[in-house]
Design brief:
Elements (H helix, E strand, L loop, with lengths): L3 E7 L4 H12 L4 E5 L2 H11 L6 E5 L5 H11 L3 E8 L14 H29 L2 E6 L12 H21 L4 E8 L9 H7 L6 H12 L9 E4 L7
Parallel strand pairs: 1-2, 1-4, 2-3, 4-5, 5-6, 6-7
The protein binds NADP nicotinamide-adenine-dinucleotide phosphate.
Length: 236
Amino acid sequence: MEHKKAVWITGTSSGIGRALAIEFAKNGETVIATSRNKSLIQNIKTDLGSKSKNVIPYELDIRDYNSIWSFFSEVSKSFSINCLINNAGLSSFKPSYEDSVEEIKNIIEVNLLGAIYCIKTVLPSMFSRNDGTIINILSVVTQKLFTNSSTYSASKNGLMAYSKVLREEVRNKNIRVLNVYPGATKTSIWPNHILEKYSHRMMTPEEIAKVVFQIYSQKSNVVTEEILLRPIQGDL
Ligand SMILES: NC(=O)c1ccc[n+]([C@@H]2O[C@H](COP(=O)([O-])OP(=O)(O)OC[C@H]3O[C@@H](n4cnc5c(N)ncnc54)[C@H](OP(=O)(O)O)[C@@H]3O)[C@@H](O)[C@H]2O)c1
């Protein structure tokens, strides 16, 4: 019997990832929702009512390749992951010279290495099915220079470069690579003083999630490979 198809979303305990899990589940997709905090993902189910069974939470720290592999082997016994959404991420909002080595390492390990580890994990099964979608939640920092986000910019620009090369390598295997570049969105990634000042002009995670679901569900020869999303009043 063929396994049920599922969408794996990383970083679903809050913000954009949480909104993505809800949007995809509401639209009938089975969502494998991962982050380090499983109980926060569990909360999503209360928002979903009858669709709550569509979300399956797993605890996973994407900095650890071995854990990703064990998680994926377990999930693959029941599901075939036809879409990976690399969403987990963090920033520091400080000048480069104030970032500690630990902060730098953490940002690169989650935003860049973790995302690449997840891609590497899902690709063999996508190859064998000759089908798949990889969606990367990147950032407007790939389009414009922002101070106080040097390591974050390095991580997002790194993943953008990686995924643009990957896209050309996997097109002939019917795998879509979609890069989403959001501008300021109202989530807890931002420090409180910025949220207090600017949250009224930020996009919401729900608005981002709707666009991502639209480009995911565009099942035709047309692929929205790159999409830049900004609040109407522009960057902060
Ligand atoms: N908000 C914006 O303005 C904005 C703009 C452009 C791009 N983005 C991108 O959107 C994505 C989501 O961010 P957000 O704004 O929604 O922030 P958020 O609310 O802080 O969510 C970040 C998510 O990443 C997860 N995460 C952090 N470290 C992790 C790790 N080691 N392993 C697994 N998961 C980890 C967190 O879960 P746990 O802590 O439970 O693990 C959390 O669910 C990020 O990639 C961010 O760069 C955000």
